[in-house]
Amino acid sequence: MNNPAKTKRAIVRFCPGIEVEAFQVPNGSYYVSITTASKAVGYNRNWLSRSTSRGGNTFKALHRVGFTDLFSEVVTPSKGGEQASKLISIDNFASIILYAASKGKKEAIALNMALTKMSLTDFFRDAFGEVPLTMEQKRIAFYKTYAESLSIEDWLAMDREDARIIQESLLFLSSS
Fold first, then answer.
1. Would you call 97 helix, strand, or coil by DSSP?
2. 101: which of 6, 18, 25, 142 is 20 to 30 A away, CA to CA?
3. In a 10 Å sphere around its CB, with 0-12 CB exposed, 13-18 middle and 19+ buried, how is residue 61 labelled?
4. Nearest to 114 by CA among 133, 88, 127, 89
5. d(C-alpha 94, C-alpha 66), whole Å
6. How far apart are CA 67 and CA 75, in angstroms?
C-alpha cells in the first residue's frame, strides 16, 4: 500500500469543521488518517497513536469494541515533496467512534448519532419503497442531528473556529 501513484487522497467532510483525511487504495478499500480520526471523535491529533503504542487500558478497551491494531502507512505527494500518513480501516474508525462515545466524548456521541440516524433513515425509506436520500439531503440531516446532539457548553468546549464554521452552516441551512 506504499505506492503513492495508486493511492488516492481526499477529505471526507461530514459537515463544516467535522472531517477526516481519507485514502483509497488500488483494491478499492478506504482508510482514515489516524490523526484526523482522533480529532473527529474529540481527542488530540496524537491520541490514537499514543493510546495504541503503549498497550495499557485504552488499548485493551479499543480491542474490546472491535479495534485491531493493524495500521497501514502511505506516502502521497504534497506541496513540500511527500507526506507519510498512518492509516486505519473504516472498521477501526467505527470502533474508535464507539469507544470515544462510551467515554463520553461529545463529538463522538454527536458523530455516532448523526451517522446512525442518516443510515437508519435510508433503511426506512427503502422499506417504504422510497429512494435513498441524496448526498445533499444526507449532509443536511447529518448537520442537523450533529448540532442537536451538542449543548451550548459542548460547542464552547470545541475548537472555536470549528464551532463557528458549523454554526454558520446551520444558520444558512435553516434559512434555506
1. helix
2. 25
3. middle
4. 133
5. 9
6. 23
Q: What does the DSSP 8-state code read for residue 14?
A: E
Cell digits for 98? 464507539
3-state DSSP assignment of residue 84: strand
How far from chain centre, in Å, is Cα 175?
Answer: 27
**Identity of residue 93:** F
Reduced to 3 states (helix: H, G, I; strand: E, B; else coil), residue 158 is coil
Q: Which residue has the cell 472498521?
A: 91
Three-state SS at 25: coil
pTM of the model: 0.80
Give 143's contacts (C-beta < 8 A, 6+ positions apart). Answer: 15, 114, 166, 169, 170, 173
- Beta-carbon contacts of 101 under 8 Å, excluding residues fewer than 6 positions away, are 41, 108, 109, 111, 112
Rg (CA), the chain: 17
Average pLDDT per run of 10 along the chain, which is 176 residues long? 66 89 91 95 93 86 91 78 86 96 94 94 96 91 87 65 62 62
3-state secondary structure of 67: coil
